Amino acid sequence: MKSAIIANQGDVLMTTNKKKLLLTDSMAASGQALLAARDDIETVLFPHMMTGEPFQALLAEHAPVSGVALGATRMGAPELDASQSMAVVSRIGVGYDAIDVPALTAKKIPLMIAGTANSPSVAEQAFFMMMWLAKRSSELDTIVKQNKWSDRLDHTPFDVLGKTVLVVGFGRIGTRTAKRCAAFEMNVLIYDPYKPDKDILDAGYTPVSDLEAAIAQSDFITLHCPKTPETVGLMNAARLSHMKPTSYLVNTARGGIVDEDALHAALLEGRLAGAGLDVFAQEPVDPNNPLLKLDNVITSPHMAGVTEEARDRMSAAAAKNILSVFDGATIRENVVNQEIFG
């Protein structure tokens, strides 16, 4: 590790071995301040969209690098090799589909996420999208702005009161989304094959094991599962065919969980009423994506978990995760690849 001179007391030069960190410039001041307060750490900011060979080159330039705090930047074996001394990879968020987890695990490097830091924000966005669709907000806004007041009864909104919502995934975000739906007196179904029915029942909701049957009886479906080989294409043409023509699909989880071509076809054919999408299979989304041309689709640019407050919480959590590893007190509940402790 390279040494840095920190003081000159008489004829004695005092040095310390600083750990170098690369931080995406999307890390909020709350996280940067926690790291800046440490005199054993040196930080380097890099553009949050940097990935691939440019990021590898940056790692090599500053090697040895002991830790990184990442947004959407990809991280795998080439980046680990370039860093020479990676001890921890920390996400400023909770998703990690851009990270080669097996590559980290093979080197016993923890991949850490921000815990529940952005869970309330994503849950709010999911519920907001449900309410926006139910209240026909886009259509009614257009009616007023285009002076088509007499058309308002052609776009009558409806209540979520008494409607059935299917929450797919009962983790950090799904549990919070369910609470918000229940507070509005909705009938809440939970599909999560990894959660015991008792946990769901104890929380006051109805567990379901037959996904297709649950889809068929739901007025809203909101997705809160991670993107894994098992969940890619989870909402495919076959499952979309079970939706009611009056129902809505909301995805604030990850692009690829919904088959976008199948969703577009179902919407065009009137086999569901609309959709709210915060995530897409390709991001930034292709401006020619046909879903963007539909009036009954509302969108946002993968921002459900990126509120002002969530950025502060996620950045602080990412910094604390890194420091916990350096201090020999790893926050184990935030480690994705738990097998490194075996």
Write up what this structure looks like.
This protein is of the alpha/beta class and 342 residues long. The protein has two domains: 3-117 and 309-341, 3-Layer(aba) Sandwich (Rossmann fold); 119-299, 3-Layer(aba) Sandwich (Rossmann fold). The chain has helices spanning 29-36, 52-62, 77-83, 101-106, 119-134, 137-145, 172-183, 197-202, 211-216, 237-240, 260-268, 308-326, and strands at residues 3-9, 12-17, 19-24, 41-46, 65-70, 84-91, 111-112, 164-168, 187-191, 206-207, 220-223, 248-251, 274-277, 297-299. The strands form three sheets. The protein has a seven-stranded parallel beta sheet. Strand 11 (220-223), helix 10 (237-240) and strand 12 (248-251) form a beta-alpha-beta unit. It is elongated. Mean pLDDT is 94; it is low at 1-15.
CATH class membership of the largest domain: Alpha Beta
CATH topology of the largest domain: Rossmann fold
Helix count? 12
Q: Could you say which structural class the secondary elements and strand pairing correspond to? A: alpha/beta
Q: How many distinct domains?
A: 2
CATH superfamily placement of the largest domain? NAD(P)-binding Rossmann-like Domain
Give the percentage of residues in beta strands. 15-25%
The side-by-side strand order for the widest beta sheet comes to 10-9-8-11-12-13-14
Q: Tell me the helix content.
A: 25-40%
Q: Can you tell me the overall shape?
A: elongated
The CATH architecture designation of the largest domain is 3-Layer(aba) Sandwich
Question: How far apart are the first and last residues' alpha carbons, in Å?
Answer: 28 Å
Number of strands: 14
